[in-house]
Amino acid sequence: MKRTQQIMLLCMALTALPLSAAAQKLTVSVQQAADHAVENNRQSRNASLAVQEAKAKQWEAIANGLPQAEATAEATADYTNFLGASVEAFGNTIEFNPTTNLAFRVTQLVFSGNYYVGLRMAKIARSMAQTGKTKSDLELRIDVANAYYLALVAVQSRDFAAQNLANLQSIYETTKLSAQVGVIEQTDLDQLTVQVNSMANAVRSAERQIELAHNMLRLQMGVSATTELELTDNLEAIIAHTNVEAATERLFEVEKNIDYRLMTEQETLAQQQIRLQQAAALPTLAAYYSYTEKLKKPAIDFSPSQMVGLNLTVPIFSSGLRCARVKQARIQYETTLNQKELLTDQLRIQEKQARFNLRNATDQYLTQQQNLEVSQRVFNNINLKFQQGLVSGIDLTTAANNHVNAQNSYVMAVLQLLQAGNDLEKLYFTTEQ
Asked: Does the keyword Kinase apply (predicted)?
């Protein structure tokens, strides 16, 4: 009986695990959502791993110039002994006995042009990986903000649709009573029925759009699909904190742009590649120390057990191989310079276009905001006249459709305004912020 109770408790605990996971809830602002994404998004983690890999490669480059030690064991036997052969010298027979040696060797690089250039290249590569991580985080934050805004816009659309549905249902109930007593024609009531059904579908569609936007935000934040998200920021507060004039009047310093910085580091790396190929023509000098312990010695052995020496390698002739490699590196460097100039022009044009888009989005937002207010007044006025029998159901339907279109245009204008601000902020971003 006791064992049965334990099994039942275990089953209940296992059943509760997915329920607790499904009940997980995150309450986040735009900034908190972006911070969470930087810590948990898979792409952000890969960028962090790339930085760690670059650090390991830099240490690998450093370690190539540090002392290297190795130990070896060797056992040898003369093959001729197995054939019964021997060597005669000065009237004596010399047999080559099997030998066993234990050796220890330490080497130290003294000079190598490739080594010193390689150190600089490894340092540049590490810096590029860190800059790439910064760029990845910036793009992720922008994507999270856009997904967050999209979710807020979806909620706003749902609220508009729900409000419209409630208004139409109220008008429908009033019109239904009027139609029953013959004050209003049945055709007007039928038109309202179509409007109510269409708006109910719009509400359901808006609910699905909210879930879709939340799923996109979950993906960007790196959370599970079952995590419930509660968004604390609202569109009005975000727009109120958007200073369009300050954003469009900022000085654009292309040298501080993250893409320009990456290209500058790429240019430096290409320049070091030229020096690396040139350094291949320089000599390489290494020192070594070796100690050999002979467990089984041959009959005659004149080799010392300890040795110290230098190993100098001097390239003499390569049939133009090194020259060709240097030429290729120079061509790559010139190509990088051209790409850098092209990027500079592209960034300046993008910045001008982003300014224009933000100003245009601001004007569009203000216009649609006014249109929304006007369409609301027009709809209220037509509705009042409809209740008094002064206008037909067609007029009311037209006013309702115009109001819905104004709401949709307003919502899209809000989203375009926020996204345009993000696009400009991305260009202005520097690591000094």
From this structure: no
